[in-house]
Amino acid sequence: MAFGATVFGSLLNARLATGSARLLPADVAERVVGGTLEPGRIGELGPRTASAVADVYSEGLSTVFLSAVPVLLIGLVLALMLKDVKLEARGQGGPGVQGAERPAAPRRG
Question: Rounded to 5 degrees, what are φ and ψ at 68?
Answer without folding.
Answer: -80, -20
